[in-house]
Amino acid sequence: MKQHKHKKKLGFIGFGNMAEAIAAGLINKKIINPNDMLALELNPKRAKAVQKKYKINIATSIESLFNQTHTIFLCVKPQNIPDILPTLRNFYNNQLMISVVTGIKTKNYLAHLGPKAKIIRVMPNTPALIGHGTAAYFAHKNVSATHKKKCEQYFNSVGTIIPIKNEALIDVVTALSGSGPAFVYQFAQSLINSGIKLGLPAKTAKHLVLQTLEGATQMMKISKDSPQQLTNKVTSKGGTTLAGLSILNKKGFTKTVEACIVGATKRAGVLSRLFKA
After folding, report:
1. Which of 83, 167, 189, 268 is the most buried (most CB within 10 A)?
2. pTM reported for the whole predicted model
3. Does position 2 have pLDDT exceeding 60, yes or no?
4. CA dihedral defined by 178, 179, 180, 181, rounded to 10 degrees?
5. Domains of the chain, earliest start first
6. What strands lie across the sheet with 37-40, from one edge to the other?
7. Residues 190-205: pLDDT tens digits?
8. Helices marked H in 15-105 — which ranges?
């Protein structure tokens, strides 16, 4: 494979919501100049919009992208991977590959890109779109400490990121924080609906619930107490909190939440097994 001496751009294969969140974070934090980014987006309308909004260069082909990049974010849908990976094999030239694709393991990438390929799997979540995401990553042994730090810098621009040493646990991360926002939204919607049914105006119910969730989250962040200990502190004998918690317990709230996470984790594992290298 011909060596390319001037690799100075950060590349994106696919430029959907998550890729946009990452790029916007890097640009807004002035970590990378838009001129030093290159995106490959097959939807012409989307590509034009990206170029206009962020001033990011648009690659004309996968070969062009690989010829000009040192790091590539793979941000496509899992179902597109079987078609894309064989193509990447022809042009991969020692770039750091950061995949945010659900369910595709490092061994799948290595099978196509070669045993020395540098692969990092990241599971981010959608609050990255507003700079408040959280992510976890698994780095293959081929990845250097310098590249790990670079990956962390990229994702810290849109929230936080932590390392995971066991790749199998990425499935748990997918369920807990990747899918987690949807579970929080459902809980919030249930609280809002309850307030409305009991007579509160919809706007008032939403404000109270969202502010309560934000305040409770901040309490959990700054307090040395566990969430359970904080619960105990606002629960008094014969009080309203205890009355509500008793109903949750009778309805199996904790077990239902645990089953939710287990089910989502299992599904992530199924998606992993669907792909054949």
Report:
1. 268
2. 0.90
3. no
4. 90
5. 8-165 (3.40.50.720), 179-272 (1.10.3730.10)
6. 57-58, 37-40, 9-13, 69-74, 96-99, 118-123, 133-139, 159-163
7. 999 999 999 999 999 9
8. 17-28, 44-54, 62-67, 81-89
How much is the pLDDT for 273?
A: 77
Give the position of tokens 């022809």.
Answer: 90
d(CA 60, CA 76) in angstroms, rounded, equals 17
Strands 69-74 and 57-58: what pairing? unpaired
CA distance to 57, 99, 276, per residue, from 78 (Å): 25, 11, 12
Contacts for 255 with CB less than 8 Å, ≥ 6 apart: none
Quote the tokens at residue 165.
């040493």
Give the start-end residues of each E strand in 96-155: 96-99, 118-123, 133-139
Confidence check: pLDDT of 19 > 50: yes
Give SS3 for 87: helix
Which residue from 122, 222, 119, 105 is spatially nearest to 162, judged by alpha carbons? 122
What is the pairing mode between strands 133-139 and 118-123? antiparallel
* Separation of alpha carbons 24 and 158, rounded Å: 8
Segment 20-72, tens digit of pLDDT: 999 999 999 899 999 999 999 988 899 999 899 999 999 999 999 999 999 99
